[in-house]
Design brief:
This protein has about 625 residues and is an alpha+beta fold. A five-stranded antiparallel β-sheet has the order 2-1-5-4-3, with helices on both faces. A five-stranded antiparallel β-sheet has the order 7-6-10-9-8. Helix 14 packs antiparallel against helix 15 and helix 15 runs parallel beside helix 16.
Length: about 625
């Protein structure tokens, strides 16, 4: 049993040979031997006590070292049973988990492992149990307050008290994980940057480039790494710009400038370059970061803008509007023509230039419909100056759209066409007057010729009574055509009004067949014109329908009502005669008349209906555009 070094030394047991028996006086040699023996034992005890004190000191030092290396270690140490219970743990482990060490013992370690990572710990223990080799895993532990942190677990199998245990070393790697995450984000951000980024060593050797740099230069990353950044320079690179960059690198200061560089395929590009030095925590230069931007397109755009600015100040007035048709910018020509300055026009709409009463709302609506459907509109319209003067202008408006086809701007040009419009109008008026006189003369001659033909037919009818009725039918048709030419010979245009045409043919039929034909037109009638190409066919249709009503009306008066339809540009001509209407033709003559009407009736803008009302037959002719058109002489 070891002796306590702090206890007093035990008395040495004297040799039995040196102890005299009771009553005997020890001899001198015996006493000397006894003293010598006691001194020997005393020296032995001193040696033992010294050895015990040294052992105690070593034990205390060992305990201190154990405390320093185990409990105060910068990593966590713990021993876990095969069943997963914590058997031992150092103070670092307790500090990591935010618990007293006493509360850790006999607790399952999985209690402190985050749920998503417990399978990883289970796999680690299984691999260690199967192979016995040390294992590592990164997983998250949860502190007492619920905070999660990353640890690197290094595990090794051992024996403790006759059973298998796991010795675990826990290293907090939260900061490293955060750094890794930041590095990944930085890496992806670097790849996503649209500008080219190049990282070099202090001696300008490339160590990293991003995808944008590869796209700008045309070189693959493997071809760039290790090269000096001068590889982009070429014959036309400005030596002064290169020298300025070299001086900045030598002085380890920032540089910013534009250089003409060369791509891999030999083409040039304007490189808007900025270089920044990177230093460590001791201020030592570690890298240079260069950021490149291909400014070629921007330079071309700036040049195009300069050209556009020059073109903008042309002789024509130019207006730039936003998608809501608000004026953003005008040029000097606009101010000169209209009298409105940039400040006065800005924020206004095209209504600023609209004179009252010159064009209808429908006209402007049609213009904007054309602009949106075709992308542009060109034409003449009246405009108003700032002083109120109205003048004719040649206007062109174009739509500007973005990549998705959405309208972003409108650009309009404006030319004062007062002089040219006046001359053109005078020329057109002169030509129109000459044409109208010639047309009227031609229509007059045609009408006279047709009337002559009618006279010849009348004479033949008198000479041949048996042919009187068919000849009279022919005379009626010739007179219908003559009516058209008579109306066209009186008008300023080759077009004739529906009401005039109906009345003239009714009068001609009444005189020829000696039967009253009454035409009723309501008061306040707004005239409609028959388009020129349909005038003769429509006159023959009306003549045939009125003659048919006269012939089948039994000498009773025929009534004709001219009315508007559901719209102002629609006309209904109702022809009413006494008699009975049957769907089937009752005679060859009637069938011939119906076939003639069907053949001559315009294919668009005209339809014919017949019905029986009491003792009268109603024939209704419906007319609308494109057979009819508005009377521009009235509208203007």
């Amino acid at each position: 049993m070891p002796l306590d070094p702090d206890s007093p030394p035990a008395a040495a047991a004297p040799s039995t040979k040196a102890i005299p028996r009771q009553g005997d006086e020890p001899s001198q040699p015996t006493l000397q031997a006894m003293i010598h023996t006691l001194r020997v034992h005393q020296n032995d005890l001193k040696i033992q006590n010294e050895e015990l004190r040294r052992t105690k000191l070593e034990l205390a030092a060992s305990q201190t070292t154990y405390f320093d290396f185990y409990d105060l270690a910068p990593v966590g140490y713990c021993t876990v049973s095969a069943g997963g219970l914590i058997l031992q743990a150092n103070l670092t482990t307790a500090a990591m988990l935010g618990l007293p060490r006493s509360e850790l013992l006999r607790q399952p370690i999985t209690r402190f492992i985050c749920a998503p990572d417990q399978d990883r710990y289970y796999l680690l223990t299984q691999q260690m149990a199967l192979g016995g080799a040390p294992q590592e895993a990164e997983l998250r532990l949860r502190k007492r307050d619920g905070t999660a942190f990353w640890v690197l677990i290094r595990a090794v199998a051992a024996q403790g008290d006759g059973e298998a245990v796991w010795r675990l070393v826990l290293s907090d790697i939260s900061l490293r994980k955060q750094a890794d995450a930041t590095l990944r984000v930085s890496h992806h951000a670097l790849k996503a940057v649209s500008q080219g980024v190049m990282i070099t060593t202090p001696d300008q050797r490339v160590v990293s480039v991003n995808d944008a740099f590869v796209a700008i230069t045309g070189y693959r990353e493997a071809e760039i790494l290790g090269l000096n950044c001068r590889f982009l320079q070429g014959p036309l690179t400005d030596p002064q710009a290169v020298d300025a960059m070299r001086q900045a690198l030598t002085k380890q200061v920032e540089f910013s400038g534009e250089l003409l560089n060369y791509r891999k395929d030999g083409s040039t590009f304007c490189n808007e370059l900025s270089i920044s030095p990177v230093r460590d925590e001791y201020g030592q230069l570690t890298h240079f970061i260069g950021v490149s931007r291909d400014s070629s397109q921007r330079n071309r755009a700036e040049e195009a803008m300069r050209i556009a600015a020059i073109a903008f100040e042309c002789q024509d007035a130019l207006v730039v509007m936003d998608a809501c048709r608000r004026v953003l910018r005008v040029n000097q020509a606009f101010t000169r023509i209209t009298g409105y300055s940039q400040q006065e026009a800005q924020g206004q709409t095209p209504e600023l230039l609209r004179p009252e009463g010159s064009h209808s709302t429908a006209f402007y609506d049609a213009v904007w419909r054309d602009i949106h459907s075709t992308g542009t509109w060109h034409g003449e319209m009246w405009q108003r100056r700032k002083n109120g003067a109205v003048y004719p202008a040649r206007v062109s408006t174009t739509v500007v759209t973005d990549a998705r086809g959405r309208v972003t701007h409108y650009v309009a040009s404006l030319t004062d066409s007062t002089d040219s419009a006046l001359q053109e109008r005078q020329r057109e008026q002169a030509e129109a007057a000459q044409r109208a006189a010639l047309v009227r003369e031609v229509h007059h001659h045609v009408k006279n010729s047709l009337q002559g033909i009618s006279g010849l037919l009348h004479q033949s009818a008198r000479q041949h009574p048996a042919l009187a009725e068919p000849l009279q039918q022919a005379i009626s048709q010739v007179q219908g055509i003559a009516v058209i030419h008579g109306l066209q010979g009186r008008a300023d245009s080759a077009q004739v009004r529906v009401c005039e045409l109906t009345g003239a043919i009714a009068d001609a039929v009444a005189g020829l067949w000696q039967t009253p034909v009454l035409v009723e037109i309501p008061p306040g009638w707004q005239p409609c014109l028959v388009v020129e190409k349909e005038a003769v066919p429509l006159a023959l249709v009306l003549n045939e329908l009125i003659v048919n009503a006269v012939k089948h009306g039994g000498q009773t008066p025929v009534r004709i009502d001219v009315r508007k339809g559901e719209r102002p540009d629609q006309v209904q001509i109702s022809i009413s005669n006494a008699g009975q209407f049957t769907q089937a033709a009752t005679s060859t003559e009637q069938a011939h008349g119906l076939k003639l009407v069907a053949a001559l009736l315009p294919r668009q803008g005209a339809r014919l209906l017949r019905e029986q009302q009491d003792g009268r037959v109603i024939t209704c002719l419906h007319l609308e555009p494109p057979t009819l058109g508005p009377d521009l002489r009235i509208l203007t």
